[in-house]
């Protein structure tokens, strides 16, 4: 990207576990938090080249894997403030925003997409 000379976008996929601690997920959360700090650190080196570095951090999301759990959608619908888990489209729209020209002045940021769950953090159990 630097050699091309016309800027660019780097987007990391993290998780809500990178912004708050969860039992039995310390190692996973550490890696997701590390991605968020990597994005911030790369700003120092890449912003002058018009390269943005941002992070999308999804919460509970309906995927092929989570749809295999009979209780997943009902549980996360009950404890997520907006009443439902995310869809893959919700996550994709956030990613597309960061990649759009309109986001060219946003860099080093993490966007949590969790329907407000981290604001109140109720346990799924």
Describe it.
The protein is α/β, with parallel strands linked by helices and about 120 residues long. The chain has one domain (about 10-120): Rossmann fold. It is about 35% helix and about 20% strand. It has 4 helices and 5 strands; from the N terminus they run βαββαβαβα. It has helices at about 25-45, 70-80, 90-100, 115-120, and strands at about 10-15, 50-60, 60, 85, 110-115. Strands 1-2-5 form a 3-stranded parallel beta sheet, with helices on both faces. Strands 3-4 form a two-stranded parallel sheet. The mean pLDDT is about 95.
In short:
The chain has 125 residues and is an alpha/beta fold. It contains four helices and five strands, in the order βαββαβαβα.
> Which parts are unreliable, with pLDDT below 50 for 5 consecutive residues or more?
none
SSE string: EHEEHEHEH
Average pLDDT taken over every residue: 95
**Which CATH class?**
Alpha Beta
Tally of strands: 5
Strand content: 15-25%
Find the CATH superfamily: NAD(P)-binding Rossmann-like Domain
Side-by-side strand order of the widest sheet: 1-2-5
Distance between the termini: 45 Å
* Shape designation: elongated
Number of domains: 1
Number of helices: 4
Residue share in helix: 25-40%
CATH architecture: 3-Layer(aba) Sandwich
Structural class: alpha/beta
**Would you give the CATH topology?**
Rossmann fold
């Amino acid at each position: 990207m630097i050699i091309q000379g016309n800027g660019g976008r780097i987007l990391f996929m993290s998780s809500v576990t990178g912004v708050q601690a969860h039992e039995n997920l310390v190692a996973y959360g550490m890696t997701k938090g590390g991605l968020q700090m990597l994005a911030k650190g790369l700003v120092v080196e890449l912003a002058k080249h018009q390269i943005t570095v941002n992070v999308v951090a999804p919460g509970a999301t309906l995927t092929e894997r989570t749809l295999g759990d009979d209780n997943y959608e009902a549980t996360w619908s009950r404890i997520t403030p907006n009443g439902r888990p995310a869809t893959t489209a919700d996550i994709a729209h956030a990613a597309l925003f960061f990649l759009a020209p309109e986001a060219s002045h946003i860099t080093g940021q993490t966007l949590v997409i969790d329907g407000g769950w981290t604001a109140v953090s109720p346990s799924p159990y």
